[in-house]
Amino acid sequence: xxxxxxxxxxxxVVSNKEHKGFGAGSIDLNNVSAVIIDKDGEEAYIDLGAxxxxxxxxxxxxxxxxxxxxxxxxxxxIVWIAVDKREEGMYxxxxxxxxxxxxxxxxxxxxxxxxxxxKMDYAMKRRIILxxxxxxxxxxxxxxLIEYNEGMWHxxxxxxxxxxx
Length: 165
Known about the structure:
By secondary structure, the chain is an alpha+beta fold. The chain has four helices and eleven strands; from the N terminus they run ββββββββββαβααα. The strands form three sheets. Strands 5, 6, 7, 8, 9, 10 and 11 form a seven-stranded mixed sheet that branches. The longest helix has 14 residues, at 135-148.
């Protein structure tokens, strides 16, 4: 997007007019990714499609806010990961987990969209919220983060390392 001849690398959620103050009205998603945890922690992978609700597990699924609509759903997690840079280098700065159920055969799913949006925001604000995840799911997330970039893992906060075991 261009504003006043300057290229802006952010999603403007207010309008395309210039606003007062640095970054006013914009959300910068450049440093946010999503890790999908599936099959009770057997699978963990980065899926940028989740930023637009089009991850591998979400495609073709009609979501409901009523859990009872998905009696045979399998539990999956979208974990929003925010990265940042400090003296030690790049690190995993925020990590927040959002539960959902998917039933690919019935093409139905359950998730609370507001929770997903809020948790993405919390990750961007450098919070670590991994409530509800099993030890196996946390281990899968840890493996995925280390495999992606071991240096970023080592530079990450003690809080993240403790919560992932």
